[in-house]
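Hi there, hope your week has been kind to you so far. No rush at all, and the record is pasted right below.
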Amino acid sequence: MNFVPEQRTNPEYFTPLYQLALNQFEKAVDHLKLPPDVTEWIITPGRSMMVSLPIRMDDKTVKTFYGYRVQHNMALGPGKGGLRYHPSVNLGEVTALATWMTWKGGLMNIPLGGAKGGIRCDPKKMSQAELEKLTRRYTAAIFPIIGPEKDVPAPDVGTNSQTMAWIMDTYSMRTGFHTMGVVTGKPEIMGGSLGRMEATGLGVAHSIAYAAKKINMPLEGATVAVQGFGNVGYYTAKFLQGMGAKIIAVSNSLGGVFNKNGIPIDPLHQHSVEDRQLDNFPDTEKITNAKLLATKCDILVLAAMENQVTEKNAAKVNCKIYAEGANGPTSLEADKILEEKEIFLIPDILCNSGGVVVSYFEWVQGMQSFFWDMDDIYKRMEKMLQNAFEETYTLHQQEKVGMRTAALMIGIKRVAEAQMTRGLYP
């Protein structure tokens, strides 16, 4: 590369996750051979907002939280991206996630740009009343830059459909009219789309099924280990089990369970709702997250947080298909090791894109106030996912590059073409 993005030296952006996003981008554009000025133009975040959020806690004290919304690139359309509540949230992390959303929109060929938001907090230690106050305060703070034709938030780590309902209501109170399209991932009663809750996990399962065909591996009886048992991990495991696969290991942030004969996913999920300590589940052995990542299996699903597999532990990964349900779980050094081990990697911007596809469908339905049935949604989603997978796999073979680089090349190229076609204003 013959340019150095300003954000590489800007301490606000300088975080390991954002460096990973930049490194992946640079590797992909080396193959695209875009002009340096265009390259810098499309990687630079368009808008970054940081807001302070004082709220009165249940004990009557006032505590100030910090929130972010980054709109990375909107050449393809309004911003689209989740809202994360987690203690690790910072500007660099949110910018990295917004960057990946930009390329994901390009890869899936949908008319939405890349954005992301977050609040640095621990939702597990906050009451429902405190979370509602925090969400409404955040919505009021970022009100000028969001909206159905500006930027559309969605759930992410630590948030859910209730969070989106609070955002929609607060935004509607500010505009003075019902504004359905300001968020996606809403409850169905408020205009949420059918299939949105399970969309990301279903998309991961479909991607794995496509990959299994490429390597001639039957899903019936295939062994699966799943790191992360939130929404994405649960639905991925559920759909894979429905396809005949055998889930042998599952973990969350507290640890996990293992059974070589298979674990029934719905009972485990019900257990996790009542008790997050998975190792209390009967007929299973206790397993750590580190051990799960090294478990011998046919399919390894990463559905937790970023930076899970690095050069320190990548050599221990022992699977045939490596599926990134989470964003940014793998370092570039680990990518190389997995490639040398001939593991089929399904990169995050492809693997977990079912969520953004159905979010796009919800946005369209909300703008039209006309709703589709489940069969229509599933068929449309699977067609878009399969098209993106086949396009990525074809480029991967033609250019002799990894699946991640191929996916990024497609997404980046579409964004660059849109940006250059629109031109500069003024």
In short: The two ends are 28 Å apart (CA to CA). The chain has 14 helices and twelve strands. The chain has a mean pLDDT of 95. The first helix runs from residue 16 to 32.
